[in-house]
Amino acid sequence: MNNFKFVALSHLEFAHLNDLSKDELLRKNIVLMTVDKFPGFPCRVTLEDAEIGEEVFLMSYNYHSATSPYQSSGPVFIRKNKVSEDYQVNVIPRMFTQRLLSLRAYDKKGMMIKADVFEGNFLKDKIQEFFNNEKIDYLHIHNAKPGCFNCLVKKVEDGAK
């Protein structure tokens, strides 16, 4: 079995947004939204769906800054005033089990070497299958329908946290 860990985006990267007005946010191409359905606003800092009535930032984020043709950016939701979640080894956050997902696998050079689309309840098996390939260094999970990036999944050596 391959050990793995979900890596959320750091809240420290977005903390300054909490103090900006809606106009200041718009000048940075960031939209402050009020959540009106659940699930539907997956936060990339907590790896949880935001609750109805919560405020979230919708913004473009450079989630794959590799020096390869696969460098990418795209829209993400960040919950206002939330702290990053630190998930334990081999724990899959609940929000992933209820979505159609795209899993993309990259080597150490940031080149995509494998991808698949499947229902989220198969995620653990797919992570294991992908990490059985020794060429795969890390994974990205995306929501398959809108194509939005969710998070990084990294291999964890035995005994690491």
What does this protein structure show overall?
This protein folds into two domains: 76 residues; 69 residues, no CATH class. With 161 residues, it is mainly β. The radius of gyration is 16 Å and the shape is globular. Helix content is 9%, strand content 35%. The two termini are 16 Å apart. The strands form two sheets. A five-stranded antiparallel beta sheet has the order 1-8-7-5-6, covered by helices on one side. Strands 2-3-4 form a three-stranded antiparallel beta sheet. The protein contains two helices and eight strands; from the N terminus they run βαβββββαββ.
Number of domains: 2
Characterize the biggest β-sheet: 5 strands, antiparallel
Tell how many strands the DSSP assignment holds: 8
- Helical segment count: 2
Point out poorly predicted stretches.
Answer: none
Shape: globular
Write down the overall mean pLDDT. Answer: 95
Q: Main sheet: which strands, in order across? A: 1-8-7-5-6
Rg for CA atoms: 16 Å
Strand content: 25-35%
Helix content: under 10%
Order of SSEs: EHEEEEEHEE
Question: How many angstroms separate the termini?
Answer: 16 Å
Structural class: mainly beta
